[in-house]
Design brief:
Layout (H helix, E strand, L loop, with lengths): L20 E9 L8 H14 L2 E10 L10 H11 L7 E4 L2 H4 L5 H13 L3 E4 L10 H34 L12 E6 L5 E5 L11 E6 L2 H15 L5 H10 L12 H9 L7 E3 L2 E3 L5 E3 L6 E3 L9 H13 L5 H15 L4 H6 L6 H8 L2 H7 L15 H14 L9 E4 L4 E4 L3 E8 L12 E4 L8 E7 L6 E8 L7 E4 L11 E2 L5 H11 L5
Parallel strand pairs: 1-2, 1-3, 3-4, 14-16
Antiparallel strand pairs: 5-6, 5-7, 8-11, 9-10, 12-13, 13-14, 15-18, 16-17, 17-19
Helix pairs in contact: 6-9, 7-8
Length: 526
């Protein structure tokens, strides 16, 4: 520097511009506010950044997402995560206004996410607001008011939309969502004149247009009629109907095989009888679905061309409400007929039958399948049927029973009850013995080992031999208390079997000791 003039030498370059701040921008647009488009927000933020010597280095954008909750707002979640984990390579976050940051119903939630940024040394700047977010009393009060107003706007809008939907539903117009199986959506104009049928994913484009429901293709309506006929006339259970439809290669609305739930929902749907029903459930703002009482439903008679008559629908509803009208004797007659026809009884056999009530129905009426068996004099001596297994499995089953009843396995008395087909310990503990072959994905949803408890004679515990993946030998042994499993079947996978380590036997020779321990923990007989 020239000591006389105080000016720097001419060969030294100096910057007259202040340091440029690196910032990120957060933009959000919900489908109901097109004036807050992503492009317009980015443009406004770019102008603010240019005027304040800032450069936008990152963009977090939530497109078509409501600001009421954090659900689905992956961009804001990513922003908060980057700030908390120290990955933020910027000094501030630019947001168009307070409402774009969020319309949270609890204003404190909006302040909480801003506080996270502030704690990490990153300021949140609202570009379109008239106040500076500088922590002053005025800025704090303005933010509180803006946040409350943003949340209140969403509440008011929710009430208005719900009221409009209800009004249009009372006129018989469909209020969104895909049509049920056997029905289709038809677009009509403001004069109710048909315009075109809507395919899946298509929606109306004009505000004055409306959507009504009409009959679908004949092949689908015939399936609906068949479901009601089988249920009302043939008295087929849900699962049997689903199996009947799947055997014909028929698919549900989503193109998947029919299930019990699909059949049940079809039988309850009043639309098939011509009655349009709306508002069975309400989805309140920032909350989950709430079931409404019947008096709050919207029901419009003769709004849809019926696929089935009212008498059939009411008959199905009566059966669903009051249950099957079988008497105890009628149920036992069905069971006896199945025994005489097939020579034995089992839960899978009942599920396959088109006339016999399901095992669930027998359990609900008589307490258990074995109780129903005893009423007709049937003794389930077959225990566990390996109908699709090789002779190796049967051999392993017999060998395992021999190993368990070996005198050297325990000091207590262990014997095989040939009448009940169970291993008894000290004459008190009844243990069923089962070999579980490995089932690939084609047999089950997930590859694993499936046990059917409803195919077992009454027992206190189950000794399981689990086979290896090639089904060539037994992999390991387990002794499970029967009371540990509430459902009639259970599938073990490579992941879930690890949760049952405490029931694992090192070898069949340790069966006696484990069974004695289990016997001591059982409640005394009444």
């Amino acid at each position: 520097m020239d000591m006389k003039s105080g000016k720097p030498p001419s060969n030294v370059r100096t910057s007259i511009r202040p340091a440029i701040h690196r910032v990120a921008q957060y933009v959000r647009m919900s489908t109901d506010h097109q004036r807050y488009s992503i492009e317009s927000q980015i443009k406004a933020i770019a102008e603010y950044a240019f005027c304040n010597e800032m450069i936008v280095v990152r963009t977090y954008a939530d497109k078509g997402r409501s600001g009421v909750t954090m659900k689905g707002r992956e961009a804001l979640k990513s922003l908060i995560a980057d700030v908390q984990n120290g990955r933020a390579n910027f000094d501030s976050v630019l947001v168009y206004d307070v409402s774009r940051w969020g319309r949270f119903q609890d204003a404190a939630e909006s302040a909480y996410y801003e506080f996270i940024c502030k704690s990490a040394g990153i300021a949140v700047i609202y570009c379109a607001e008239l106040f500076e977010n500088d922590g002053s009393v005025l800025a704090t009060l303005m933010k509180v008011m803006k946040r409350a107003m943003a949340g209140e706007y969403s509440r008011e809008l929710s009430v208005k939309v719900a009221r409009a939907h209800r009004h249009h539903a009372e006129l018989g117009f469909h209020q969104g969502g895909p049509a049920n199986f056997g029905l289709r959506r038809l677009l009509v104009d403001s004069s109710n004149k048909p315009k075109m049928a809507l395919d899946n994913g298509e929606a109306k484009s004009l505000q004055g247009d409306r959507v009504i429901l009409i009959k679908g293709p004949d092949e689908e309506t015939r399936v609906v009629q068949e479901i009601f006929r089988l249920f009302v006339k043939e008295r087929m259970p849900h699962q049997t109907i689903a199996r009947h439809l799947n055997a014909k290669g028929l698919k549900n609305r989503r193109g998947n095989p029919w299930s019990n739930t699909n059949i049940h929902n079809t039988l309850l749907n009043e639309k098939y009888a011509g009655t349009f029903v709306y508002c069975k459930t309400s989805w309140h703002l920032a909350g989950g679905p709430i079931a409404n009482s019947v008096d709050k439903w919207v029901r419009v008679e003769n709004a849809i061309a019926p696929i089935i008559d009212q008498m059939t629908f009411k008959a199905a509803r009566l059966i669903l409400t009051d249950g099957w009208t079988y008497t105890d004797n009628e149920m036992l007659d069905y069971l006896t007929a199945s025994w005489c026809t097939n020579g034995y009884l089992s839960a899978p056999l009942m599920y396959k039958s088109k006339s016999t009530p399901t095992p669930v129905t027998f359990r609900a009426r008589f307490g258990s399948l074995n109780n129903a068996y005893r009423r007709i004099g049937y003794r389930a001596v077959h225990v566990y049927r390996y109908s699709k297994s090789s002779g190796l499995v049967r051999t392993l089953h017999r060998n395992l029973i021999c190993d368990l009843t070996s005198p050297v396995s325990s000091e207590c008395k262990i014997a095989f009850d040939s009448e009940k087909q169970v291993v008894t310990v000290a004459g008190l503990l009844a243990v069923a013995v089962v070999i579980l072959p490995f089932l690939p994905r084609s047999n089950t949803v997930v590859p694993g080992w499936k046990i059917h408890f409803d195919r077992l004679e009454e027992c206190d515990a189950v000794c399981v031999g689990r086979m290896n993946k090639s089904n060539s030998a037994i992999l390991d042994y387990y002794l499970f208390p029967r009371a540990h499993f509430a459902k009639p079947s259970h599938c073990f996978t490579e992941a879930t079997i690890k949760h049952f380590t405490k029931f694992r036997l090192r070898s069949p020779a340790h069966f006696g000791k484990a069974a004695t321990t289990l016997l001591s923990r059982l409640p005394p007989a009444a």
